[in-house]
Amino acid sequence: MNLLNFAGLKWRRFTGDERFDYPIDYSAALLSLREDGHIDLLYKWEPHCYCHFHRHTAHTTSVVLAGSLHVTTIDPDTGAEIDRYVREVGDYAAKEPGDVHMECGGDEGALVLFSLYAPDGVLSEALAADGRVILRSDLADIVERRKARA
């Protein structure tokens, strides 16, 4: 599978609503899913748009394939900004569970390959501005959506 040729990929698009004060517009395509908790996903961000403020609850590795990804890391206890940086094409990152952050596509958006390991099945938690969990992403939901499309 050529990850830069989107033919055949099934994308799920996510957008924001009135609860969010930042533009949310990103999409995800499932590449592989194993029962042992490993999952590979391709994410793409529209230019100058975010994904939901979130915390990874799984071991996560990623590599930027196109565009640039602007990342703001947040202290989970205080809500204060810890760090801000830009990931360019070729940048690789490996993160332990618990990483709280915002991600935004650059001028040309971003395309990023993610590999996650979630032995308990929980991948991430979308957060409200005050840090409350508003949505959990888990493997069981993905499996159910996959079955429904089959």
What labels describe this entry?
7% helix, 55% strand, Jelly Rolls, 150 residues
Structure description:
It is a single chain. A hairpin with a 5-residue loop joins strand 9 (122-127) and strand 10 (133-138). The protein contains 1 helix and 10 strands, in the order ββββββββββα. Strands 1, 2, 3, 4, 5, 6, 7, 8, 9 and 10 form a 10-stranded antiparallel beta sheet that branches. The protein has one helix at residues 139-149; strands spanning 11-15, 25-33, 38-45, 54-56, 59-74, 81-87, 92-95, 100-117, 122-127, 133-138. It is mostly beta strands and 150 residues long.
Short description:
Helices cover 7% and strands 55% of the residues. The chain has one helix at 139-149; strands at 11-15, 25-33, 38-45, 54-56, 59-74, 81-87, 92-95, 100-117, 122-127, 133-138.
- Tally of helical runs: 1
Largest sheet report:
10 strands, antiparallel
Reported by name, the CATH topology is: Jelly Rolls
Look at the structure and name the CATH superfamily.
Jelly Rolls
Tell me the name of the CATH class. Answer: Mainly Beta
Going by helix content, strand content and strand pairing, the class is mainly beta
User: What is the distance, rounded to the nearest whole angstrom, between the alpha carbons of the first and last residues?
Assistant: 20 Å
Overall tally of domains:
1
Radius of gyration: 15 Å
**Order of helical and strand elements:** EEEEEEEEEEH
Q: Taking all residues together, what is the mean pLDDT?
A: 92
How many distinct beta strands?
Answer: 10
- Strand content is over 45%
| C-alpha geometry | globular
